């Protein structure tokens, strides 16, 4: 998948869908300057080519009582392929882990975790994270307040 395949109309379609995935095809077509049928064909092509991965609803964590966001840096004992794969497979199973990145620098992974309270965080760290074979070090930082949160990628023409 290469961004070079996208023309200006494709980018406008993606931009509009990132803002509101529930927009009707007729409304989308009007906003991007197409008739409905060619617009729908472009959306389907963008889906097939992997430019549109999913349509989701964004639920505020607080609405579900998930008031604590924690960034956890994890270092492994060894960074060989099997250890990395084992860690990644296990972390993907935990619903608390919203994002996980393989990193350069001081730690091997950075996780964004949401939990309802400190007890849930302690349980997650002590019963889940530390039980993954090969975990050497865990460091946590708490988000005091979310300043910016975006889901839409920038669309450059």
From TrEMBL:
<feature type="domain" description="HTH asnC-type">
    <location>
        <begin position="6"/>
        <end position="67"/>
    </location>
</feature>
<keyword id="KW-0805">Transcription regulation</keyword>
<dbReference type="InterPro" id="IPR036390">
    <property type="entry name" value="WH_DNA-bd_sf"/>
</dbReference>
<dbReference type="GO" id="GO:0043200">
    <property type="term" value="P:response to amino acid"/>
</dbReference>
<dbReference type="InterPro" id="IPR011008">
    <property type="entry name" value="Dimeric_a/b-barrel"/>
</dbReference>
<keyword id="KW-0804">Transcription</keyword>
<dbReference type="GO" id="GO:0043565">
    <property type="term" value="F:sequence-specific DNA binding"/>
</dbReference>
<protein>
    <submittedName>
        <fullName>Lrp/AsnC family transcriptional regulator</fullName>
    </submittedName>
</protein>
<dbReference type="Pfam" id="PF01037">
    <property type="entry name" value="AsnC_trans_reg"/>
</dbReference>
<dbReference type="InterPro" id="IPR019887">
    <property type="entry name" value="Tscrpt_reg_AsnC/Lrp_C"/>
</dbReference>
<dbReference type="InterPro" id="IPR011991">
    <property type="entry name" value="ArsR-like_HTH"/>
</dbReference>
<dbReference type="InterPro" id="IPR000485">
    <property type="entry name" value="AsnC-type_HTH_dom"/>
</dbReference>
<dbReference type="InterPro" id="IPR019888">
    <property type="entry name" value="Tscrpt_reg_AsnC-like"/>
</dbReference>
<dbReference type="InterPro" id="IPR036388">
    <property type="entry name" value="WH-like_DNA-bd_sf"/>
</dbReference>
<dbReference type="GO" id="GO:0005829">
    <property type="term" value="C:cytosol"/>
</dbReference>
<keyword id="KW-0238">DNA-binding</keyword>
<dbReference type="InterPro" id="IPR019885">
    <property type="entry name" value="Tscrpt_reg_HTH_AsnC-type_CS"/>
</dbReference>
<dbReference type="GO" id="GO:0006355">
    <property type="term" value="P:regulation of DNA-templated transcription"/>
</dbReference>
<dbReference type="Pfam" id="PF13412">
    <property type="entry name" value="HTH_24"/>
</dbReference>
